[in-house]
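User: Hey, quick favor. My workstation is busy. Could you predict this chain's structure for me?
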Amino acid sequence: MLSYRHGFHAGNHADVLKHMTLCVLMRSLTEKDKPATIIDTHSGAGLYDLKAKFATKNSEFLSGIEKIRNNQKLQELVPEFYEVVKKAHKEPFASDSMYPGSPYFEYCLARDCDSLFFNDIHPAEYESLLQIFKRKNHVRVELRPCLESIVALLPPLKKRGIIFIDPPYENEQEYRQSVDAIKKGLGLFKQGIFVLWYPVLARMQDHSKSLVQQVKRLNAPLLQVEMRVGAQGEDYGMCGSGMLIVNYPYKLEEKLEPIVGELYQELCDPQTGGARIEILNEKD
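Assistant: No problem, here it is.
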């Protein structure tokens, strides 16, 4: 327990898909003048040095950010992503090898009127978040688990918002717990946008199809975004990842389609990879 550190995987293909999707979600959320609440239940460290020992152990960033760093089409489709990455390089303690995590994207793309809550259960990740966000008035950082965060923070005072759930999936229980968290969250904040990231693992380890079906059975509007960069192995490895977006914003699928299409071209094996955007439960 608590062995997972996202620094080993920072900037990989899953991060790129996740964070570009998050950028478009934040764009949709902030288009309206009304303030919003953003809750990140598994925030991680916030910033990652791609030259540090965690990142260089497997150099997973070579499968993601390094392949699309200079992609002109993606820079036009999702300029926020590239702007936040550049901003991360300018932090007082950072360098041009830094890659931002989801809370840093959320912070940079939020407004002063929005409230942000970053939570993590790992003490080292929590301390890193404190250092980054300790002087940010509209950000609160806490050391507590996902479901506890949802029960404590919902319903929010600001009645619009995103709850971003990004577990490490160290064990099978985390799949069930993630569904329970969304179910509990919807009971407290029916109109909230709940975003769940998931991995697509080797066949003997993969629970992604079951997870998707469980979230679909919650009978809330649901959009799926998934990308597989290569063939699914039998025993070990992650070939892809996906996002389940409950109460997805209007026309989100249309905004994501060209982005995911370009990511497929740049990151996926054309013979064994694949990408999809599908509405699983329609809006009323």
